[in-house]
Recover the amino acids of this structure.
DNA sequence: TCATTGATTTCA
DNA sequence: GAAATCAATGAT
């Protein structure tokens, strides 16, 4: 029996939450039945000081959800065609988030949202309360591999080489 | 390696 | 207002 992850799970810093989230299930309630997807790849974004994090340039309309309490979703659109799925972590007013880069069956952040049916309407959704999306402990504790983040070369050192990308070994 | 694509941010 | 930017993907 698996159960929904509670608020406390998301209140750690983004790096810790990213590591713990990898290997858990994200559950989408699509109509009548819930679909479970194993999270296989994540990246951590540590607001404020992290130049790769959108919130490092200040609070704007888009990044505002990152300032919510951990456990909320931060969804945004890039490259004119892809939704990105992020889980806010840390306490309120602490802009940190974990980008879900891959789940089982879907690799690549744009394909994850497409495959799960995630779009802008999920922005600010609360994983601990929502009836259409939440997370569950899979019971698995897979071996993880850490590496540098992808697609953020504009951020410059030392941020581009921080090993804040986590994926299940394989 | 390049075109696609449009919301967001930045600059004037 | 207008221009540049962008946590990417898929076709070539």
């Amino acid at each position: 029996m698996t159960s929904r992850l509670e608020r406390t799970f998301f209140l750690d810093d983004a790096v810790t939450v990213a590591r713990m989230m990898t290997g858990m299930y994200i559950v989408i309630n699509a109509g009548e039945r819930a679909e479970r997807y194993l999270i296989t790849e994540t990246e951590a974004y540590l607001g404020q000081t992290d130049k790769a994090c959108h919130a490092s340039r200040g609070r704007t309309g888009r990044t505002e959800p990152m300032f919510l309490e951990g456990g909320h979703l931060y969804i945004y659109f890039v490259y004119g065609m892809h939704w990105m799925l992020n889980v806010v972590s840390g306490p309120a007013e602490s802009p940190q988030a974990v980008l879900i880069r891959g789940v089982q069956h879907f690799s690549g952040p744009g394909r994850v949202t497409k495959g799960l049916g995630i779009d802008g309407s999920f922005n600010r959704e609360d994983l601990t309360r929502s009836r259409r999306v939440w997370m569950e402990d899979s019971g698995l504790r897979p071996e993880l591999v850490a590496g540098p983040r992808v697609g953020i070369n504009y951020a410059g050192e030392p941020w581009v080489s921080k090993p804040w990308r986590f994926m299940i070994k394989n």
About this structure: The helical segments of chain A are 14-21, 109-116. Residues 54, 57, 60-62, 76-82 of chain A lie near DNA strand B (CB under 10 Å from a C1').
